[in-house]
Amino acid sequence: MVGVIQTQSKPLPGPADAATWLARLRAFEGEERALIERAARTAESAHRGQFRASGEPYLVHALSVADILIGLNMDAEAVAAALLHDVVEDTDLGLEDIEAGFGPVIAQLVDGVTKMGQIGRFRDAVQREQQDAESVRKLLLAMVEDVRVVLIKLADRLHNMRTLKHLSPERQRRIARETLDIYAPLANRLGIGQIKWELEDLALRYLEPATYRQIAAWLDERRVDRERYIEGVVSRLQQELGTAGIRAEVSGRPKHIYSIWRKMQRKNIDFHQVFDVRAVRVLVDEVADCYAALGVVHGLYHHIPNEFDDYIANPKENNYRSLHTAVVGPGGKTLEIQIRTREMHEHAELGVAAHWRYKEGGRHDSGFEKRIAWLRQLLEWKEEESSATDFVDRFKSESGHERVYVLTPAGEVLDLPRGATPLDFAYYIHTEIGHRCRGAKVNGRIVPLTYELKNGEQVEILTTRQGMPSRDWLSPHLGYLRTPRARAKVRAWFRQQDHEHNLAAGRSILERELGRLGIHKLPWEELARRLGRDSVDDLLVALGKGDLTTSQIATAVNELTRPQPEAEPAIPLSARRSGEDAAGDVQIQGVGNLLTHMARCCRPVPNDPIVGYITRGRGVTIHRSDCPNVLRLKGTDSDRIIEVDWGSGQKETYPVDVMILAYDRSGLLRDITTILASENINVLAVNTYTDRKDYVAHMRLTLEIGNLSELSRVLGRIGQLPNVLEVHRMQQA
Q1: Does the pTM of the predicted model rise above 0.85?
Q2: Choosing from 90, 96, 472, 525, which is the catalytic residue?
Q3: Is the pLDDT at 92 greater than 50, yes or no?
């Protein structure tokens, strides 16, 4: 039978006391059972009188987490630690008491779970202030010591998500977001499918409640018809596989709401175009039987092109293995079929937890070793990433399940995060190849380094004999590097350069960026303080190393040039909302309802320092404070200069003049307007001419810009076009 998984919004029914829970425990005997009994009674005593937000005794949570781990086939030490996982944090018992009563191993597991519980708290701090990077690293690295820490924490989070409805809406959204960002990707990376799917569905339920209910309703509409359809397919497949001599177990596969939503988002399709709403799973004995069963399926039903994935020959990064194919089933309805061995299925559902089933027999588990190796790579990331944000971003990128599979020229398969570029590919091959990369071929065709790689493409990197990375590669809006791993390697290269070199490079970058934005009077000391640097030199060196980007500079300039609110509320002027003379939400102290317009000579944009000039018959003209015309008027008509500032009303766009110098070529203006269209920027005017002596095109564009950060991003992208020599905001005399 196939249908949507019904995730729990209330606690799973279970005993509220240790005796009842122990009475139904069947998984352990002897010393192992005695250990768990002591842990259960200790937890019951420590949590006595404590209740959760749902009103149930706190012990129910500890017992439920232990039940989840038993379902994952975990050992007695892990189950005992699960029963005690909240004792240190929420009761009078200390870690030393746990160690004295249960030994150092269980004490370490409990301590590790307690530390991992701080991830969300520090993650929020990182988003607010980008501080305490070492704390974030330590929390993620805690799981390297013993992977059972992660499994206990995942079980803890799963039960918390099942009972999330008892919290306030704000806490529901915060915890659901943290679950989707950290815990679900972690479960995926460790191959624990049954926890991953439920965490994702529950998180979506609170983050996108309307979407969740809509997809659930779609799945429920034709449930009876769909189940009858699947039963017919299962029966036919079972018969055909038996005739072919293949011993197989065929069943309908439950469909998860989050996976449907992700596929709709990624492919920009509606619900009825999702192939695997109707899904069947085939379990066989041997790998050879998988491909034999695939032949039977494709002989029985028409295969849909580009909808076949062989994860047996090319396992996912979390060692997931299976064959996926989409076919046109009976009645012309699309149908997804998964084919795998029983061992593959167990690893897909339990991941690293499956290892404990074979631990006693000493059976080698290569999948387990591969996942543990990935955890230990976190130690290497600690040395490469300079900030907590970069570290967490890299963790999410590497643990996410959205991957793209490409080929090296030698035919080796390499999997990268979806959206990766040829430059990312080069750094995944080898750091030096990335540093010396100067071009790339995809399927034998030259492509730009910003090209987004697709599944099945063969990538060849073109290198120079001696090369070095470009600082432009670190600019997010230029799109050279999409993976945190590759960006970390480029930043590491720049950090190794000498101090004086980085200082000079940083000064050049800052001067160029401020010049492009038309900012000439901003004190660099204030900019350094805004970006958390002790001095201007520290700011310049960080820029030179690549620890700071031009996007961060533009954002900081935006904040520094934003006027501080006055004690008395200003009275907004009436102004048009768009167009060349729009004054937006300019405010004038003490007066209102005056006709205003933007000066054509300097064209101020939001967050520029501005003043007003009272004209004869045209109201107030708004100028930049450093406009040459205003400076001249201050000497002759100073009594007509008034203070104005930018209001805080709705988002506006303002005309800005930009000058572009470039060697003329066919398609230059088209390429520029393509960039502007992709940024949703309107062009008010274009004036261009080419000097026939040197064939340099002088292009003056008037653009509608929202703020300095947007202006910086657009100028940066235009500056990367072939033949462009210079692009900057115009300053008129």
Answers
A1: no
A2: 90
A3: yes
